[in-house]
Amino acid sequence: MIPVVVIVAHYYLWRRLVRSTTRPGSVPRRVLTWALVAFGAVMAITMIGGRVGGFGLERIVAWPGYLWLAIMFYLLVFTLVMEIPRAVAGLLVRRARPAGPGESPEATRAGSRLAGAAQPSGRLAEVGGRGAGTAPAERVAPADDHPVEAGPVVDRRLFVARTAAAIVGAGALATVGYGTRMALGDPVIERVPVRLARLDPRMSGLKIAVVSDIHLGPLTGRGHTERIVRMINGLEADVVTIVGDLVDGTVAELGPLAAPLRSLESRYGAYFVTGNHEYYTPGGAQQWIDEVGSLGVRPLRNERVEIRHAGAVLDLAGVNDLNGQSSGDGPDLAKALGGRDAARPVVLLAHQPVQVTQAAANGVDLQLSGHTHGGQMAPFNLVVPLQQPVVAGLAEVPRAGGGATQVYVTRGAGFWGPPVRVGAPPEITLIELRA
Question: What is the distance between the alpha carbons of residues 54 and 108, in angstroms, rounded to a whole number?
Fold first, then answer.
């Protein structure tokens, strides 16, 4: 299905940005056509490179392939947006064909239609013969890719097509350039106060650093992890949580990139739960669960720990991602929460926001999630609600017995696929609990 969509998208772009703006057989048309084919091929190789040629090939083709994916997407967006003004401009051009000397505009349009019908080949059309009073011959433009009309009309339509293509190209490149700068820049620090009804006042002010969707992979380096660790340590958090989608590859490929996690600092420890991408890793998620544990970050696999602060206690629980179900390693909230003191507040780490429905049914006070990237590239933020209840930020889900479960969804500190973020800057969150 995806290859068909990609082929159709490229053909549509060729029709609008190449065919309608160039002459048949011209050098610009040939160059632009083959460039479009080449970019499409590189993107296809990027998609299958890791499975066919290994991580080495993937690192080579990832940058051009994923950048073209982003550019192609925004070319599509801008081209679709331009369809209506382009159509209106084309209509105005057809109506605005200039009349000849002593000729009314109505007669000119009628004559143009007759000439077009009589001379579809585009050769010279002579009106009225060669005797005295014969009208001068009128040259009709070649058929080209446009309906046969007088030369000035064809030139104006070409001008409209090229103007639209220029706007589309400039808009797409500017958007991707801006988005790349956002994706590769420092994450935004979001400081979010959250009030919990059951929180012991002695625990008020407890700080939880939340980071998700770091996505170590072929486009990131060790510096990506070092920057995130440095920024988290600067927050002086009491607890650090990594809420899934840490990696896009195996420990053998990405282990050195994850090593800086060993330097995370917090008063009560750092904790990790799996995301869907850990289960996409060849060989399964267990290799990363073991690796993260060896770096001093404790995995919470359908389990909980007690956070004791100023004489008060809070339960911090974590569940596996939903994608672990196919391998018998899915979420088990009953196991994570079973046997605890129900009078204590509980904060749940769950990668996908959709898990909040079950969390609310089990009396969870606060769920911390990621997964959505905040949409990463607008207008995908409008599509996320089809799958997840929250795109980004803090929200509430009512509980059947009264009250509500709060859920905070971080936009994530990395990116997946294209190194581009538009309307959803990367984020590290500092949750401050208040009674």
Answer: 65
Tens of pLDDT, residues 276-285: 999 999 999 9
Q: How far apart are CA 217 and CA 416, in angstroms?
A: 9
Torsion of CA 137, 120, 148, 130, to 10 degrees: 10
Q: What is the largest CA-CA distance in the chain?
A: 112
Distance in angstroms (rounded) separating the CA atoms of residues 68 and 39: 7
CATH 3.60.21.10 range(s) for the chain read: 187-434
As a whole number of angstroms, the distance between CA 188 and CA 186 comes to 6
Domain 187-434 in CATH 3.60.21.10? The answer is: yes
The answer to whether 322 and 211 are in contact (CB under 8 A) is no
- What's residue 154's pLDDT? 62
Q: CA-to-CA distance for 143 and 139, rounded, in angstroms?
A: 12
Q: What is the pLDDT of residues 92-131, one digit of tens each?
A: 877 766 555 544 545 444 444 434 444 444 343 343 444 4
Q: Where does 216-320 show beta strands of DSSP type E?
A: 239-243, 270-273, 297-299, 303-309, 312-318
In DSSP terms, 243 is beta-bridged to 273
Query: Helix axis angle, 286-294 relative to 251-258, nearest 10°?
Result: 30
CB 419 within 8 A of CB 404: no
Q: How do beta strands 303-309 and 312-318 pair?
A: antiparallel
Pairing of strands 427-434, 207-211: antiparallel
